[in-house]
Design goal:
six-stranded antiparallel sheet, single chain, five-stranded antiparallel sheet, alpha+beta, Jelly Rolls, 3 helices, 179 residues
């Protein structure tokens, strides 16, 4: 079974449950399967690497491979709900508010291996790996654009993109190895 097939099976099982699944709940369930596919995750010293896993119904699942010292821009998810699981390593997450339409840091927390969190539709944040890390991200609906911010305010709306094709991870067959 490929990783995408395993994730789709989890989504289908959850869709039959009486409670509507959330990105956070699905991140927890998918993270239990993801470890078997981690040896397929790619890393690049110049930038973090986003891997598409599955686009299904109104869900998007991706894995990000991080090297220490990389950083996302401060960004929002344009109203999309999200869930994240740290599969290996650790990430520092900084969250911001926007008084006067400028980012103001209100929370900074280390998210260690195994950590799960939800990202609400209005969250403004950035992620910074503290070591080589792998994280799982689930969005509903799929993340198509992000608002990119600097110290002065929002500077652009950027399309979401992947650095590798689905053949790298989505079609991977489980091996049981860790990266």
């Amino acid at each position: 079974m490929t990783f995408a097939e395993a994730v789709k099976e989890i989504l289908l099982d959850c869709s039959r449950a009486p409670e509507r699944p959330t990105p956070g709940l699905l991140a927890e369930l998918v993270s239990r399967q993801a470890e078997r596919y981690l040896d397929h995750v790619r890393f690049d010293s110049s930038h973090y690497v986003r891997h598409p896993v599955l686009f299904f119904d109104d869900w998007e699942v991706m894995i990000i491979g991080w090297e220490s010292g990389q950083i996302t821009p401060i960004h929002d998810h344009r109203g999309v709900l999200g869930g994240m699981a740290v599969l290996t390593g650790s990430l520092l997450e900084e969250r911001f508010t926007t008084p006067a339409n400028k980012p103001d840091l209100v929370d900074s927390r280390l998210r260690p291996e195994g950590d799960l969190c939800d990202t609400g539709p209005a969250v403004l944040h950035r992620l910074i790996p503290r070591s080589r890390a792998v994280s799982l991200h689930i969005y509903r609906p799929p993340l198509r654009t992000m608002g990119i911010w600097d110290d002065e305010g929002m500077i652009e709306i950027r399309r979401s993109q992947f650095e590798v094709g689905e053949e790298v991870l989505a079609r991977a067959v489980a091996t049981g190895a860790r990266c």
